[in-house]
Amino acid sequence: MTEADRRFMALALALAGRGLGNVWPNPAVGCVIVKDGRIVGRGWTQPGGRPHAERRALDQAGAAARGATAYVTLEPCAHHGKTPPCSEALIAAGVVRVVSALEDPDPRVSGRGHEMLRAAGITVETDVMADQARALQAGFLSRISLGRPWLALKLATSFDGRIALANGQSQWITGAAARARVQALRARFDAVLVGGGTARSDDPLLTVRSFTPLRAPVRVIAAARLDLPRDRLAGSVGQAPLWLVHGPDAPPEARDWWRATGAELIEIAQGDQGLDPQALLQALGTAGLTRVFCEGGGRFAAALMRAGLVDELIGFTAGVVLGGDGRAALGAMDLTALEDAPRYQLSATEVIGGDILHRWRRG
């Protein structure tokens, strides 16, 4: 691997990031085609998953792709779906070398794309900037390997970890810049998830409001009995998809009413303490979601944490102190030993206006 390989793969990864939140159930892939040290084509997976990154880059390169090197952030597909395989397209275009970051774990591909390229006489190099690609593809990889989407939990808190005063007042703990960043983060995920308690107390829209995303994130609310405020949520189904995850005891009247609004209903198992978190995430994975942005509330988030389903913590911390009588960001975790507490590794920090953004990934 040369320095040029790293440079062009880094560009391909940056392009792939443009697809986050827009391409599920497909992976967000980037492709750069280089000939004689000059970029002749580039592309990334388009909203809805088609066309693929390789197809976009090849169309831009045209005849210049013959004799070129293609840098791809994920193994080119080898199966016929809604479009022909990207491996076939690279072969037909006359590309002589393919540099990829990761093998695609999808059973329909899983090495066959690379094999197809090599069988056609194309030089294939793999695992270039694999760690960076794996981080970018965390959602797709989670859905393929675990059957569930990557789950990020967002918490906006005071310095002492509170989300509201004892009387419930919470607007606003963090500043305008941090709230704008939350809107941008929503757009980079396939879905925004909250529990029924948050929906009942806040009646949130959960839409991206500061700009119009290419593909509106799905709004997912987990409410065992579908006992949710109806006006704002039902009236906004045309703005963004609304999925309601409920238990087997949800009343038929509520089911019929929400279906009539255009909401999609998903029934899952219910445990002693509410909806089964594992069943919830598996259902979302089956539905095609790869990246989910959870915004609470406290009991719901704690249930996800206790079940070991939170892959990333995204914290916005403000320089305000609310005290011990304020409302905690998380519900009870039922821990009796410190070594049992979930631990995460710091991945990024940033000053956002007057607040601190910190991101942590499970080790």
What can you tell me about this protein's structure?
The structure is a single chain. By secondary structure, this protein is of the alpha/beta class. The protein has twelve helices and 18 strands. The protein has a nine-stranded mixed beta sheet. It has a five-stranded mixed beta sheet with strand order 2-1-3-4-5, with helices on both faces. β17 and β18 (355-362) form a beta hairpin. α3 (86-93) packs parallel to α4 (112-119). The longest helix has 15 residues, at 3-17. It is globular and about 70 Å long. It starts with a helix and ends with a strand. The model has no long low-confidence stretch (mean pLDDT 94).
Q: What's this model, at a glance?
A:
This protein has helices at 3-17, 53-61, 86-93, 112-119, 130-136, 138-146, 176-187, 196-202, 231-235, 252-261, 277-286, 298-306; strands spanning 30-35, 38-44, 69-72, 97-100, 123-125, 150-157, 162-164, 191-195, 218-222, 242-246, 264-267, 270-271, 274-275, 291-294, 312-317, 327-328, 344-352, 355-362. The chain has 363 residues and is an alpha/beta fold. Helix 3 runs parallel beside helix 4.
